[in-house]
Specification:
It holds the Pfam family Sigma70_r2. This protein is mainly α and 268 residues long. The chain contains 15 helices and no strands. It is globular, with a radius of gyration of 22 Å.
Length: 268
């Protein structure tokens, strides 16, 4: 049964991206949809249902049942959002863009669910004649919610680190390499955080990095007013920061902002 489900949702019999089979690339079909072809939208979403399910399952780290799990509805809405928002000059493929949007919306959904768990009314735990037991129940519930939230945040961080490690591998970088290539001085870190964030948030620079797998050294030096030696020496660190700044890594993004947030000129 599990094998059948896996084949059904994760191993479509044909390549959904095949232009010959679908009358165009995903980018071309999205362009047609944005031009007003709503019939194409429905067919496109149905075709990529396995991709939506697979992405949701990866982010949630469990199999997402399209017929039962709310997470699939969130992912489906995010895929439709990606269709509406995608621009060809953004420097990424539509599938990569859709993956990012789905991941972000699911992370937001999970955090909303955790906040909702904290808003359980006190009346659910009190009784006029409980002699203070309701107060104890509330304290125990608050502590349990806090532990649960910390656990989920830790799980989110682990998932983000695993996803980032795969992304870094595309550039020939191991996560452990960052330990050896991280700047030791605070001032240097602030400069490199600024440069890496700029790289991740500037479409032209980001496109050069993701398409050519090369750091746009010359352009960064001109824009940021730093030496070529500084950029080249910290290539791996800058790429890692840019991936975090541009990707679906809200937990890791908090870490790269811890020092920089308090400084003037904080990146938005």
């Amino acid at each position: 049964m599990l094998l059948l489900l896996w084949k059904r949702w994760f191993s479509p019999p044909s390549d959904p991206d095949s232009p010959q089979m679908q009358g165009g690339t995903p980018e071309q079909r999205v362009e047609a949809i944005q031009a007003g072809d709503e019939a194409q939208r429905e067919a496109f979403i149905v075709q990529y249902r396995p991709f939506i399910t697979k992405t949701a399952s990866r982010v949630c780290r469990r199999f997402i049942d399209p017929e039962r799990d709310d997470e699939f509805s969130v992912a489906l809405a995010a895929f439709n959002e990606a269709i509406n928002r995608f621009t060809p000059n953004a420097g990424s493929s539509f599938i990569g863009f859709a993956d990012t949007v789905i991941s972000r919306r699911l992370i937001d959904y999970r955090r909303q669910e955790m906040r909702h768990a904290q808003s359980i009314p006190y009346s659910s735990f009190t009784d006029d004649e409980d002699n203070g037991q309701g107060y104890l129940n509330r304290m125990e519930n608050a502590a349990a919610v806090e532990v649960y939230e910390q656990s989920r945040e830790a799980e989110d961080r682990r998932a983000e680190i695993a996803a980032l490690s795969e992304r870094l591998a595309d550039f020939g970088i191991r996560f452990t390499d960052l330990v050896d290539h991280s700047p030791r001085h605070r001032d240097s870190r602030l400069v490199l955080l600024r440069i890496g964030t700029r790289l991740g948030q500037t479409p032209e620079l980001w496109q050069m990095l993701t398409e050519k797998r090369q750091l746009p050294v010359k352009e960064l030096c001109i824009i940021e007013g730093v030496s070529r030696k500084t950029v080249e020496r910290h290539r791996k660190y800058l790429i890692a920061v840019s991936l975090i700044a541009a990707g679906p890594y809200p937990c890791l993004r908090q870490y790269i902002s811890l020092e920089y947030d308090k400084q003037e000129g904080t990146p938005s």
